[in-house]
Amino acid sequence: MSELFGTLLDGAAVRRWTLERGGVRVRVLSYGGIVQSAEVPDRDGRTADVVLGFDGLDGYLAHPEPYFGALVGRYANRIAGGRFSLDGREYRLARNNGPNSLHGGERGFDKRVWEAEPVEHGVRLSRVSPDGEEGFPGRLEISVTYTLGADAALRIAYEAVTDAPTVVNLTNHSYWNLAGSGNAGGHALRIAASRLTPVDGNLIPSGAFDDVSGTRFDFRRPRKAGSGTTTTSPWTRG
């Protein structure tokens, strides 16, 4: 089921699709593939919206930088210096994060209106990223499918096909708060990772793998997300 959510300045319509199953209701926008809301009942049957987002389109247009709930691409995270080499050729990208290219550039996938079609228990978004868009090589056909399973779990499946060598790194940029509101620092968090990739002052990975033991990044045993230990490591920037 879909409804009109808003209209962009160029007249393009943005639609909101609603997925419902097992007491869970998820809303996805055709603009940026944004997961706008996820209403989930707790153990007592009380429903809360556990994903951060805005009630109207204007909120997303006015505050694009947090990428709330967005489908990020063509390349998620940072590309150092806004350039990369592939098969002996250098490609220069839009620099939208200091010296770097972040989340696909100035107008990444999060700022595009996607074609949408219903699928069983979900919606499929698709678009074609032309050769040279934001500096990336190759024509890229992308489809992203959002579904609610029989277990009421939200699943996002990505598929991308290119006609030339390129780089692709797609993800969803949702922020979750299982309490529905307030500070999420009290959430119990477990991450099954013994090492991490440290970053420099521009948040670019160094290529090393550091042990998390004794640092605030050690979540191998569940503890509060907002907790941490004192460390003198130079890479303790969140």
UniProtKB/TrEMBL annotation:
<dbReference type="GO" id="GO:0030246">
    <property type="term" value="F:carbohydrate binding"/>
</dbReference>
<dbReference type="GO" id="GO:0004034">
    <property type="term" value="F:aldose 1-epimerase activity"/>
</dbReference>
<dbReference type="GO" id="GO:0033499">
    <property type="term" value="P:galactose catabolic process via UDP-galactose, Leloir pathway"/>
</dbReference>
<dbReference type="Pfam" id="PF01263">
    <property type="entry name" value="Aldose_epim"/>
</dbReference>
<dbReference type="InterPro" id="IPR018052">
    <property type="entry name" value="Ald1_epimerase_CS"/>
</dbReference>
<dbReference type="InterPro" id="IPR014718">
    <property type="entry name" value="GH-type_carb-bd"/>
</dbReference>
<dbReference type="GO" id="GO:0006006">
    <property type="term" value="P:glucose metabolic process"/>
</dbReference>
<dbReference type="InterPro" id="IPR011013">
    <property type="entry name" value="Gal_mutarotase_sf_dom"/>
</dbReference>
<dbReference type="InterPro" id="IPR008183">
    <property type="entry name" value="Aldose_1/G6P_1-epimerase"/>
</dbReference>
<protein>
    <recommendedName>
        <fullName>Aldose 1-epimerase</fullName>
    </recommendedName>
</protein>
<dbReference type="GO" id="GO:0005737">
    <property type="term" value="C:cytoplasm"/>
</dbReference>
<keyword id="KW-0413">Isomerase</keyword>
<comment type="similarity">
    <text>Belongs to the aldose epimerase family.</text>
</comment>
<dbReference type="InterPro" id="IPR047215">
    <property type="entry name" value="Galactose_mutarotase-like"/>
</dbReference>
<keyword id="KW-0119">Carbohydrate metabolism</keyword>
